[in-house]
């Protein structure tokens, strides 16, 4: 069964050792997903699999047979071709300098929004028994700590995320949008 990438079907590579990152960049020519450390430590290669964030450099493409992958390119497609609200917020808040980490940051933030909407706590979540997670700057910073920006645009990144996901309702809406793109 092929992998669905941004709504299009992509064949599983013949070589079972092919990473999902290489499938996206080399076979599908989706270069928004970046090669960073190639060790899962920087987050530059973050994509969404069925709405959940993963680092694609550590994932074998064959593991995602029949699954739906969304890259940064697919976010606009699922949003009628216009920028995703988070992409627009990154521009407004200068959430990038060189831009290399930006696609991974954006995909990670969208996956993070889904985690919050599902009630998955982080290390800094204050009330683990609460039905909804209290959203705060510290919560966003902790949840985005796996995505590095070597230029130091972290404040703009968190400001952009706070603008878009400053309420639990926005996180739930985006989790629904990602599922829609995946189908």
Mind explaining what this structure looks like?
The structure is a single chain. Strand 1 and strand 2 form a beta hairpin. The chain folds into two domains: 3-76, Beta-grasp domain (Ubiquitin-like (UB roll), Roll); 82-175, [2Fe-2S]-binding domain (DNA polymerase, domain 1, Orthogonal Bundle), CATH 1.10.150. The protein has 183 residues and is α+β, with helices and mostly antiparallel strands. Helix 3 (85-92) packs across helix 6. Helices cover 39% and strands 9% of the residues. The model has no long low-confidence stretch (mean pLDDT 91). The protein has a five-stranded mixed beta sheet with strand order 2-1-5-3-4. The chain has helices spanning 20-27, 72-77, 85-92, 102-117, 137-143, 154-165, 168-182, and strands at residues 3-5, 8-10, 46-49, 52-55, 68-70. The protein is globular. It contains seven helices and five strands, in the order ββαβββαααααα.
SS elements, strand count: 5
CATH topology of the largest domain: DNA polymerase, domain 1
Mean pLDDT: 91
Radius of gyration based on Cα positions: 16 Å
Entry keywords:
five-stranded mixed beta sheet, Ubiquitin-like (UB roll), 2 domains, 183 residues
